[in-house]
Amino acid sequence: YDLKNANRDARINVKLVSVAGVGTVAAGVTKGYADVVLIAGHDGGTGASPLSSIKHAGLPWELGIAETHQTLVRNRLRSRVTLQADGQMKTPRDLAVATLLGAEEWGIATAALVVQGCIMMRKCHTNACPVGIATQDRVLRGRYSGQVEHVVNFFTMMAEGLREIMAELGFRTIDEMVGQTQCLKVRENLDHWKVQYVDLSPLLHKAEPYPGDTLYQSVAQKHLIDDIIDRRLIEDANAALEKRQPVELSYEIENTDRSVGAMLSNEISKRYGSDGLPEGTVRVKFTGSAGQSFGAFTARGVRFELEGDANDYFGKGLSGGELVVYPDRRAPFNPRENIIIGNVAFFGGTGGEAYVRGVAGERFCVRNSGVTAVVEGIGDHGCEYMTGGCAVILGEVGRNFAAGMSGGVAYVLDRSGALEGRCNPEMVKLGPVTDPEEIARLKGLVQKHHDATGSDVAKELLDDWDRALQEFVRVMPVDYERMQGYMRQVREEQGLEDEYEIAVAAFDLHLKKLAESKATA
Q: Fewer CB in a 10 Å sphere around the end CB: N or C, the chain?
């Protein structure tokens, strides 16, 4: 596995509509390390758009390509990016004109659809394509008469026609042809009165490159992703990836290090799927301030420990791994009163555990569907749209807590009694923690939090657990609790063990109860 060339074939493509000033935008995205800039003309697409968009969106691609190419050349950026053009290109002549104006790649889609039998009915968005191309309807798909040979022949003829034009002009390669606008001239046999006032000299101006530059893409963009921490992580954790051998690593981290761990977890998932690695196989200690999305998509078997703080999207998409964060040992502030991770932590997490010694920002555990997280306070909109998992909050919560929360459970240490006024009651209900299994689980999570982070908050709670338990409030979605009851009933009455079968049987029971209640009413 060649780490240095792992992403060489991956390109960042940016599509821009041909409008006045598009060259400035293209220069900006090129400086932002885009590999390809596509200039789309006003008459492209299938036409399955609002009439106002079809008639008034954008300019001809010729104008956009010319402006973009000239702007990139003037700013010494042309050699770093590939320029594409599209918009109802149908003939080899279209390709030749686009190339002479500055594009070395072209998009040909509508013509290819017509070759397959498209009759431009503008019904792509309705699933009612009468010739069976843009539809999932089985009857309509049966009408499809296209053949792959037709498409192959079409593109072969396009390439052959372009080759003949190149031969006439004396060009051996596309690169030689790019930007050579001196080969284009204005037709003189048009006598329409409007033509007299059209000045195409700006369009046909030839931009001359600076010494050492080219009129086509000749230098690969230097993507910052080539030097990120994950490259070293993957290399240093090779024994774990290849042989499942435990490894322990440590790194300094800065807030410019973003999405740390995402590529490592990708390597794990490619090799071992959702099962990941055995617990604790890869243990990594970071020191410093982490950037956005620290621990994103962390896979099973990976444990990240951060001594410092982290930015927004901490643990985004957490997928079975374990994250621990606590302040620098030398930090003079009180963690329970200071934000240690940013907004939207554990967004869309599907599994794993996390222990945060300190306060989190807003939208904590938004759309969480499986992560178990312990934190010492959160901002507004906590547990928003949560569908599963467990959130233990050992401190204050902000307003609009549990808005749209349809699954999972939250345990909030509500010493001030402010939770009820800050909670969105539309889909949840509040209550004490009384079930012995829940109590044992909650205490176990607080103990894990103390063991992982050395939290003084957790220690205080454990030292006087009976009193602390009275201050916890259980936040549970009403419908979710009802379905949990149905699932317990199914397990006991039917003896099912498979989770899928249990869920199906519980849903059937729910429908039965619903029908009975309607009949009674």
A: C
